[in-house]
Amino acid sequence: MRLRETLMLAAMSVVMGCGSPDTSSEPNVPLTEVPRSTPDRQYFLERVDDAAIVQLYADGFDELPLREKTLVWHLYQAALAGRDIYYDQRHVHNLEMRDLLEEILTHSDTVNPATLAEIHRYTKLFWINTGPFNNLTARKFVMNITPDAFGEAVHAAAKVGAHFRLRNGETLDQLLDRFVPLFFDPDTDAVVTNKTPSEGQDLLLASANNLYVGVSMSDLVNFDEQYPLNSRLVKRDERLEEEIYRVDGRYGKEIREVVRHLEAAMPYATAPMAKALAALAQWYRTGDASDRQAYDIAWVADKNSPVDTINGFTEVYMDARGVKGAWEALVFYVNHEKTQAIRTIAEYAQWFEDHMPWDAKYRKDGVRGITANAIEVVVETGDSGPITPIGINLPNDQSVREEYGSKSVSLANVTEAYELSRPPSYRQEFAWTEEEAHRSEKWGGLASELSTNMHEVIGHGSGRVADRLKGNPQVFLKEHYSALEEARADLVALYFIADPKLVEIGIVPAVDHEDIILAHYESYTRNALLQLRRIRQGSQLEEDHMRNRQMIVHWVMDNADAIDVRTREGKTFYVVTDWHIYREAVRQLLAEVQRIKSEGDYPAAKELFESYGIYFDTRLRDEVLQRVEQVGLPSYSGFVMPKLEPVTNADGEITNVAISYPMDLTEQMLQYSGKR
Known about the structure:
Distance between the termini: 34 Å
Number of helices: 24
Radius of gyration: 24 Å
Strand content: 5-15%
């Protein structure tokens, strides 16, 4: 499971909250303010509609030993090799659409400049979101030119050498006829993942992703999936077939290339990591669930390797029924300086488990093998990039977590880049008082880091499920599982950030603890309001982290006297009035959420999210949109990743791996596609 930046936006400050300037007496920042950068780094690169494009930096890479640099290089290549798999999973026409757009951009000499500018804008959003659907709203976005203008651009590019993917006997105009609805009609394949379809609609048939072809939920009633995580399910002649992602199966060419680079990495890895990479390669060969589990176990057992990777079909957020894994890859190394706090939390995982505010029968008898690190990300592809999480806890297999443990990472350089790329004045715009804004500026960074760590380490890593669930609660909780699990982890963090244990173990100073609690409760609550800026169409939330956030805050509003909704000068504010009452409400909700997960209580999960987590007031959303535009706050961010290049001697041996920062999304994406 992962923690998205959407959850922590309002809490973030400078790293660890140290050295923050006191802004309580500073004048309001002008509306034209430019996001901050450090003297030697530019984080914010450009704004594309409501998205920010941000450069990611990897501190300390140049100081890594050559062996580790070489390992990172091979894993980096493995991450890039599987990129197209996720494009295909997200939409059946994604790769053709991307190729068409990139051919225009690389053969644009005679394209009308105004048309080209719009195609370039759309393509940047397409790259960031890995297709024509907003990553957070799940809704389709379209071009703002006419189909005729687009057709003229395609023909102009063809005349100067662009090669488009034509079917047998197909003309360029016929290709355009096929693709015009995909680029211009918002109702054609409208929602990539529709977990709350209109009455009478099927979850799967209403979703435009390519995880299922012609398959409805009713088709699956008596179907026994052998490869649930890593297959596409297709209905042919009234029969269901699993198309397995593996070396000799679906996307076999790309998977073979991933495996080749994984095997090239093994000689440079530690023995435990080499064992995990070998297990991963074996899973890619067979596709078998037992081999995936063997890989998860080997990966969890590798506790001390300074370099690591996440690679494979992992998270199930894109599947409306919460079963199919989306392909992703991350490559990273440990930031030892920033790891101390998260490891301290991991060391006390058993204490936290013993003090969870839920029924004792849902507690683990013994917490096993929790490994936690702060990391520097080098590259993220597939489901994890260009839009990236800030925290990850894996594996998702509940049976492995309970018996062998889990690994948590806090993406330190990602969190830093998010903060340093956005205008700080949004705090003043959405805080009820100057005191609240100042508290966010001073303590938000520390509160955010603590919350992220507890969310991943003791949130996702905690609890057990009833034996009858056979370690697989998502089968029972279906489309609500992911949102419920994210809510559970968030609630754990909300509950324990206010526990005196954090002072006792030296995580926070006693004198500042109450300010840190307030900073986090206020930011968490504020963000339930702020996140509405992401939903520019419709009146419901589809993304699981957003559903989770709204559910928690609105449940507390409805069941405790801890949050006021106040207005001033036509503006709405969510104001925390008593953090003690807030925490008690969190305790009650957390106990119920754990019960729902442990028992696989689908009706209760459905009721919880339909009552509090899905629907919102569009008038409030419109107000929030107006306010965030005034302060220049983007809805989300896409990252330009560091670029690695090997330095070799006359014998072809790697003598160094150079890191650079492209500072240009278009250049990077075209390089990834082999068009630069």
